[in-house]
Amino acid sequence: MDRLKYILVAALAISCQQISFAQKSNSITELNEIDKKINESIYITTNANSFLTGETLFYKLFCIDKSTNAAKNFSKVAYAALVDSNKKIVFTHKLFLENGAGNGDFFIPTTLETGNYKLIGYTNWMLNKNASGFFNIDIYIVNPYKEESNTTVASNELASLESVTDSNISFDFKTKTYNNRDPIELGINANSEEFTKGNYTLSVRKTDGFLSQNKTNFKELPAENLSRNSNLQIDNTNFIFPELRGEIISGKISSATGDIKNKKVALSVIGKNYYLKLAKTDDLGRFIFNLEKPNSSSNIVVQVVEDNEKEYTVEIDKTKNIDLSNLNFPSLQFNSEFKKNITERLIASQIENAYYNVKKDSTLNSNDSIPFYGNLSTEFKLDAFTRFPTMEETITEVVKGVVYRKVKNDYFIHIYDYDPNYESTLPALVVVDGLIIKDLNELFKYNPKNMYKINIVRGVYYYGAKSFNGLISFTTKNGDYETKLKGNFIIRPELLRPQAKKEYFQPDYSTNKSLRIPDYRHQLVWMPKVDLNNSKSKITFYTSDVSGKFEIILEGFSATGKPVYIKDFIEIKKSDLN
């Protein structure tokens, strides 16, 4: 696999030098041979297949080998999108993959119409095959706030309520009957290391679907859904760079008067966990940024970093259109209890949404808190010093080794080298919340009370394709610095951002079972990553105020790619508290 990556990096380099794949048949042949060995595909599982507006669709995406189903680590980024029956995209999510998997969720708004939808999944590499090489499953949505249209006559069939077992992995219950707000301890037993090291999701949900169509699992999918790309060739008209190391953002610069070759372009993802990248253009003014770590901030600035930057115009490449023409949408087929189930779920979702603020999911911060300049900086947290009213005083009195100068009406910052006998003529790299600042006048007008800390790195500092006389990085308290610079050389593109990791809300009734906040959860558990660190793992959660039959589903793949799908049921009875 490493060898394949090196080949692809070489192919990427060729493309960056503007040697068109369309004109190099040997390159296309090589890429198709590589694709046969990569054999990449997508599988998506969801918490259900039928939803009301006001509910949340949870999903997990697996990037797998089409032949073995084993996790693939080739692409580091994948995409999930919801498509309506008019073949219009409702949402697109970008997911960073860990061990070939990623997950997300989507709150279904009341703007959506009743009907059949498709949830599709793909990687950039897969779209090089005529932009139609994606996985898809059916999703059914009912909007009870709008008149239903084009719905079929209700079917008398009910969704299957039969248990599904697997000889390699199983559930372990102390009992299958519980009361409202009871704790449940669910054991999961695996018979070998192959299954304890698998990749699974766990869903516990009330069996109150309103359709006769069952949720499809991996074993029931048509073979062509996972192998539709097998005989397709790489599309040589609009090659998409595979995201081997992370998120790729590309574009180009143009100029009516200046040279566009070997020019520096910076990308800043501004925020508390900011990100800064520098790239150099090729002969045709094209540039590529590769963001190895996920950052969900939408505050992005791309700018030309040259002395004559106002002579340039910068643009970001548009995403490739996906060919949705082959999607087929079956009609809705309601079961005999659809009216009762829709009414109960509608009331429950309205109550849950009313208490959203006390039941929020938690966004998880990245484990990597190391800034782009590493750990070698000297840090000044300003609250540890006397606060000064101006940036001039703050730099002079707090930041050792840094001085500013004002020549006529322009400010300059100089960082002293470690060697007192050395004086560099290079400018310092000045950054605020990940944004490179060339015009320091606006920085010196900024209120230092809003600054959290200042970091400096002395000596000649190399970043990307450019060298500087040291680095000074300012971090604001809220990570919300806004530059006033305007022009064609600096843009704020609206780019699809990676989904933030979440820890989904779970109530804890261990100390007070009769909390006054109502609990009308129909989805008791959605656990996108189940850790079976030993052969007998246990998961604890609480029932809600909703009674009835609940299904427990574990789905995923073993370490060697064997598909796993097991299902069982529990009964929740109405307690005296209700």
Tell me what the structure shows.
With 578 residues, the chain is mostly beta strands. It folds into three domains: 1-34, no CATH class; 39-230 and 322-361 and 503-573, Macroglobulin (MG2) domain (Immunoglobulin-like), CATH 2.60.40.1930; 378-478, Beta Complex (Ferric Hydroxamate Uptake Protein, Chain A, domain 1), CATH 2.170.130. It has seven helices and 32 strands. A five-stranded mixed beta sheet has the order 2-8-7-4-5. A five-stranded mixed beta sheet has the order 10-32-31-12-29, with no helix packed on it. Strands 20-25-26-23-24 form a five-stranded mixed beta sheet, with no helix packed on it.
Radius of gyration: 28 Å
> What is the typical, i.e. mean, pLDDT?
87
Q: How much of the sequence is in beta strands?
A: 35-45%
**What is the overall number of helices?**
7
The second-level CATH architecture of the largest domain is Sandwich
Please write out the topology:
Layout: H1 2-16, H2 25-38, E1 40-46, E2 50-52, E3 56-65, E4 77-83, E5 89-96, E6 101-107, E7 115-122, E8 135-142, E9 169-172, E10 177-179, E11 183-190, H3 193-196, E12 199-206, H4 223-227, E13 247-255, E14 264-269, E15 275-280, E16 286-291, E17 300-304, E18 312-316, H5 338-354, E19 362-363, E20 378-381, H6 391-398, E21 402-407, E22 410-415, E23 429-432, E24 435-436, H7 440-444, E25 451-463, E26 466-476, E27 490-491, E28 502-503, E29 523-527, E30 536-542, E31 548-557, E32 563-573
Parallel strand pairs: 2-8, 10-32, 23-26
Antiparallel strand pairs: 1-3, 3-6, 4-5, 4-7, 7-8, 9-11, 11-30, 12-29, 12-31, 13-16, 13-18, 14-15, 14-17, 17-27, 19-28, 20-25, 21-22, 23-24, 25-26, 31-32
Helix pairs in contact: 1-2
